[in-house]
Amino acid sequence: MINPRQIEAFRAVMLTGGITAAAELLNISQPAVSRLIGDLQYALKLTLFERRGPRIAPTSEAISLYQVVDRAFVGLELIEQTARDLTARRSGALRVAAMPALGVGFLPRYVARFLSDRPRVDIALRGSTSPIILDWVATGQCELGFAHTPIDHAAVLTEKIHGIPAVAILPPGHPLAARDVLAPKDFEGESFISTTPPALLRSRIDTIFADHDVSRLMRVETQLTMNACAMVAAGYGMSIVDPFTAQDYVPHGLVVRPFEPRIGFDIAILRSAQVPLSMIAEDFLAGFMEEAIRFRDNFLGIGGA
């Protein structure tokens, strides 16, 4: 019956080319190495080394055996390295889902920065609406989800980033761009690009304008705020959108202004209530929180020309 210590001694001799060097590598005595090799040859009923003068040389059987042994040791070393990487948060896999407001610009940029010094981390990034993201997290298809509040599910824990307001967007050169802050009355009679119902943002916007008795020209509806931003940047209409998407279109000429009364665009960070986050997910989430809060505090100063 062979044992792991005999295999370890055999590999050390093959790597170093001699009993003395193998003993130094294993930090044991030369007689101990010789005994382990002798016991291994007896157990296998094979001659593994031949003496040639003061040195030993592996037999063809030893060379064939070493190929198998080395693959096994490489596998063990890979397991150990992977474990070290996981502990140091340098490797792993993460499945993330995000609503379009985050998933088309802000989050991919953060993912790129996150991966830049983690070459052995794999991330699957999915995008959909908040209800579907909630289902993906609840059923274990994604470890982290980024959705629009409110969210309530027994199998999901929710952490919120508050204080992020929706913003007004205008075409380049629009007369209202001269104002520092826009109000509902500024939209009276203006062509308005709206998100399709039953989006939560759409409901909140409609309620504000109804409360202020303001009539907009509801000319265009779209599921995605990025479509509204693209149209407004191209010179048509006005809208109220999330600030994350708006930021991406400022370089295309989009004018962004604060809107009062404030319409909240809070982010819900979703995770399983049953399964704890992996170390990689914890790092990812901590970094995302810092980025999102920095965005809230800095960008909402506010951008746009």
TrEMBL record:
<dbReference type="GO" id="GO:0010628">
    <property type="term" value="P:positive regulation of gene expression"/>
</dbReference>
<feature type="domain" description="HTH lysR-type">
    <location>
        <begin position="2"/>
        <end position="59"/>
    </location>
</feature>
<keyword id="KW-0805">Transcription regulation</keyword>
<dbReference type="Pfam" id="PF00126">
    <property type="entry name" value="HTH_1"/>
</dbReference>
<protein>
    <submittedName>
        <fullName>LysR family transcriptional regulator</fullName>
    </submittedName>
</protein>
<dbReference type="InterPro" id="IPR000847">
    <property type="entry name" value="LysR_HTH_N"/>
</dbReference>
<dbReference type="InterPro" id="IPR037424">
    <property type="entry name" value="NocR_PBP2"/>
</dbReference>
<dbReference type="InterPro" id="IPR005119">
    <property type="entry name" value="LysR_subst-bd"/>
</dbReference>
<dbReference type="GO" id="GO:0003700">
    <property type="term" value="F:DNA-binding transcription factor activity"/>
</dbReference>
<dbReference type="Pfam" id="PF03466">
    <property type="entry name" value="LysR_substrate"/>
</dbReference>
<comment type="similarity">
    <text>Belongs to the LysR transcriptional regulatory family.</text>
</comment>
<dbReference type="InterPro" id="IPR036390">
    <property type="entry name" value="WH_DNA-bd_sf"/>
</dbReference>
<keyword id="KW-0238">DNA-binding</keyword>
<dbReference type="InterPro" id="IPR036388">
    <property type="entry name" value="WH-like_DNA-bd_sf"/>
</dbReference>
<keyword id="KW-0804">Transcription</keyword>
<dbReference type="GO" id="GO:0043565">
    <property type="term" value="F:sequence-specific DNA binding"/>
</dbReference>
